[in-house]
Amino acid sequence: MNIPPSQTGTVKHLVDRRPEMSGEDLAANLVPPPQFATASFDSYRPDDDYPSQAAAVDYLRTFSAGAVPKKPKLFSRKPKQDAVKPGVYLDGGFGVGKTHLLAALWHAEPGTRKYFGTFIEYTALVGALGYSGTVKLLSGSTLICIDEFELDDPGDTMMMTRLLTELAAQGTRLAATSNTPPNALGEGRFAAQDFLREIHSLASTFETLRIDGVDYRRRAIEGHCATATDAEIDTALEQATASGSSMTDDDFSALIEHLAVVHPSRFIRLLDNVDEIALRDVTQLDSQAAALRLVAFIDRVYDAQLPIIASGIPLDTVFSEEMLSGGFRKKYLRAMSRMISLTTQS
């Protein structure tokens, strides 16, 4: 790694961090990420070409209120109220605003006992507190939001289904989006039937909202991730230091190796007090396990909206053609979209 002598001892490296998180820390972090700290139904901008987006907003407003008015029948005195199902599943491709809407729903919930987290964060919570401890912590909550519900680990899926079944029986409402299962068909979207099949014991409690659209990050962004030379990274580091900004500097391959020894639920802690990320000598990945770790890492970087400056090959080309034709294709496409956005911010 080429680090200017003037920067030695002052530049932060992600590979030097060994974050630890207790069960209490994990629970305290079950809130929308900073990017969605102020997300609301009003701040969501539906694409007029896809009416399902505005329809989803309307339904979620109703879901938040707890009931939907039904058109009164002839001679009836009052409109009836149909109880809304206690769960809602947002079904759509990446970049159509599912996480924004999920966070908006969380913010609209008036109760103080509400939680928002990724599937990985909830499973990490069970790992830290145990199943019964997690049930005890989450019992009494009014709303549980699960972003990126993983369908490719049968054990974790069954455990989460059991957990949500117990909470739903207590009156907790549920809202979820999901990641793609292995070998799922379809480009850039997550099939509702896959989600409902995997949580079969809970399926009847969920109303499915299909949200059509195109990835908003690609609406104005074409081509590949922006790349830089090592000399340009050196200059960026000097400017960051001079301005008091916190910029990390890591070799790409070394970071990929480091991610293997950090639990994905702790990736967010790698980014504490970081304003920008520099990656040097980006190369194509040859391990699917490493590629999936990068996807999880980029998700957290994107949540934090940290610009990336990188040398080597464009970051969106790190996944091989074999990976892109496999069962995790849609995860890789989402990460590529997010990396294009992050590198063009730099």
| CA-atom Rg in angstroms | 21 Å
How many domains? Answer: 2
Strand content: 15-25%
The N- and C-terminal alpha carbons lie at a distance of: 20 Å
Instruction: Encode the helix/strand succession as letters.
Output: HHEEEHEHHEHEHEHHEHHEHEHH
Low-confidence stretches: 1-9, 67-81, 181-190
Instruction: Fill in the CATH topology of the largest domain.
Output: Rossmann fold
What is the C-level CATH assignment of the largest domain? Alpha Beta
Task: Sum up the overall morphology in one term.
Answer: globular
Number of strands: 10
CATH architecture of the largest domain: 3-Layer(aba) Sandwich
Characterize the largest beta sheet: strand count, sense, and whether it forms a barrel. Answer: 5 strands, parallel
Number of helices in the DSSP assignment: 14
The percentage helix is 40-55%
Q: Whole-number average pLDDT?
A: 84
Q: Which structural class is indicated by helix and strand composition?
A: alpha/beta
Spatial strand arrangement across the major sheet: 4-5-6-3-7
Task: Describe what you observe in this structure.
The chain is of the alpha/beta class and 346 residues long. The protein folds into two domains: 5-20 and 218-345, Rossmann fold (3-Layer(aba) Sandwich), CATH 3.40.50.300; 48-213, 3-Layer(aba) Sandwich (Rossmann fold), CATH 3.40.50. Helices cover 41% and strands 15% of the residues. The protein contains 14 helices and ten strands. It has helices at residues 23-28, 51-65, 98-108, 119-129, 131-138, 154-169, 192-198, 216-219, 230-243, 252-259, 267-270, 288-304, 321-324, 329-345; strands spanning 67-69, 81-83, 87-92, 114-118, 143-149, 173-178, 206-211, 247-251, 276-282, 308-312. The strands form three sheets. The protein has a five-stranded parallel sheet, sandwiched between helices. Strands 8-9-10 form a three-stranded parallel sheet. Helix 12 (288-304) links the parallel strand 9 and strand 10. The radius of gyration is 21 Å and the shape is globular. Mean pLDDT is 84; it is low at 1-9, 67-81 and 181-190.
